[in-house]
Amino acid sequence: MVRGLAQGPPEGAAIVNCYDWMEAARTCPKCGWTGTGRETKTGEAFHEGSERHCPKCWHYFGFVVYPTIDENLTDPRADPIDRLAAQVVRQRVRIATLKAQRAATAAIAKAAAR
Ligand SMILES: [Zn+2]
């Protein structure tokens, strides 16, 4: 079966924190390659994360979830670009919430004035 972006992680895939995984030392049980998770190669990518493989022999290490908005904002290991993107998303949510509150307040005031 061909997996696509709309599908979730592979069934039975282990889900771990992205930053923890990327920082930790990895050893390929198949070819002996050693390095950090960050040095592994990205396999299939999904909405929630991506598969990580040995850069030498493509051994499958596991499925690593992408950091959450909160992790990007609070984890000191977050990429500055990811942190900025998380701030933009957070601001957009805040603006949408304020607009909804303002609309609700206006609707209540209009109804009370009748
Ligand atoms: Zn390998």
Question: Which characteristics define this entry?
Answer:
binds zinc ion; 3 helices; two-stranded antiparallel ribbon; disordered N terminus; four-stranded mixed sheet; alpha+beta; about 110 residues
Polypeptide structure, described:
With about 110 residues, the chain is of the alpha+beta class. It folds into two domains: about 10-65, no CATH class; about 70-114. The protein has helices spanning about 20-25, 70-75, 80-114, and strands at about 15, 25, 35, 40-45, 50-55, 60-65. Zinc ion binds near residues 30, 33, 54 and 57.
Instruction: Return the structural class.
Output: alpha+beta
Across the major sheet, the strand order is 1-6-5-4
Distance between the termini: 61 Å
Main beta sheet:
4 strands, mixed
List the uncertain runs: 1-7
How many distinct domains?
2
The topology string of helices and strands comes to EHEEEEEHH
Count every beta strand, where a strand is a DSSP E run of 2 or more residues. Answer: 6
Average pLDDT, to the nearest integer?
88
**Number of helix segments?**
3
What general form does the structure show? rod-shaped
Q: Name the quaternary structure.
A: single chain
Structure at a glance:
The chain has 114 residues and is α+β, with helices and mostly antiparallel strands.
Secondary structure layout plus pairing:
Blueprint: E1 15-16, H1 18-23, E2 25-27, E3 34-36, E4 41-45, E5 49-53, E6 60-65, H2 69-74, H3 80-113
Parallel strand pairs: 1-6
Antiparallel strand pairs: 2-3, 4-5, 5-6
The structure holds zinc ion (ZN).
